């Protein structure tokens, strides 16, 4: 076995950040802004997790959204910090649920209420098409599905698009895509 030599970290050493060969623009292919689950494992949370614990986990992991799954791994819906807000928790408490017993599945957006783009159609669209479409629906997240196979392929996030385009996005806006669309239009 070969022993590797160790070196001291120099004061000028820094973290390497991969620079993309080309900058993302509104005319870039839409497939460049969606989180493909074949390339990146989706972040998941069990529906039986307490809402307050899920919010802490999301903040620690620096994620804005998680897929909600059953204890058997079946897809149930999506949860984001928007759904985990104080107002929604109080709404559950007003229905007689103890604050400590409010679960992710009580606040999540059920898969039956979610919208999705077909991957085939998305592959022929550009970023501007996506932003415009989602602005019209007022969505912050949208799934991407392969309709013929009934598989959820990924998700598109307003935050990811804003970050990639390097435009500001206020998470407090009710319609993040609307805000993003305006930022892009003025960019």
UniProtKB/TrEMBL annotation:
InterPro entries cross-referenced by the UniProt entry: CBS_dom, CBS_dom_sf
Keyword Ligase among record annotations: no
Keyword tRNA-binding: no
Source organism, top-level taxon: Bacteria
Pfam families: CBS (PF00571)
Keyword vocabulary terms for this entry: CBS domain
Signal peptide: none
Domain CBS: 108-171
SUPFAM superfamilies named among the record's database cross-references: CBS-domain pair
Protein name: CBS domain-containing protein
Organism field: Psychrosphaera haliotis
């Amino acid at each position: 076995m070969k022993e590797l030599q160790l070196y001291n970290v120099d004061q000028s050493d820094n973290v390497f950040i991969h620079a993309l060969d080309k900058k993302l623009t509104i005319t870039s292919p839409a497939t460049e802004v969606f989180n493909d689950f074949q390339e990146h494992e989706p972040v998941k949370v069990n529906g039986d997790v307490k809402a307050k614990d899920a919010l802490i986990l999301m903040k620690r992991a620096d994620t804005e959204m998680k897929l909600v799954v059953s204890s058997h791994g079946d897809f149930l819906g999506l949860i984001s910090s928007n759904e985990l807000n104080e107002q929604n928790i109080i709404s559950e408490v007003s229905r007689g649920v103890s604050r400590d017993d409010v679960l992710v599945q009580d606040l999540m957006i059920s898969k039956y209420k979610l919208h999705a783009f077909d991957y085939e159609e998305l592959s022929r669209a550009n970023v501007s098409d996506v932003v415009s479409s989602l602005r019209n629906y007022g969505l912050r997240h949208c799934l991407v599905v392969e309709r013929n196979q009934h598989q959820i392929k990924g998700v598109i996030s307003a935050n990811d698009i804003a970050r990639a385009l390097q435009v500001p996005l206020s998470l407090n806006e009710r319609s993040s895509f609307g805000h993003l669309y305006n930022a892009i239009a003025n960019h």
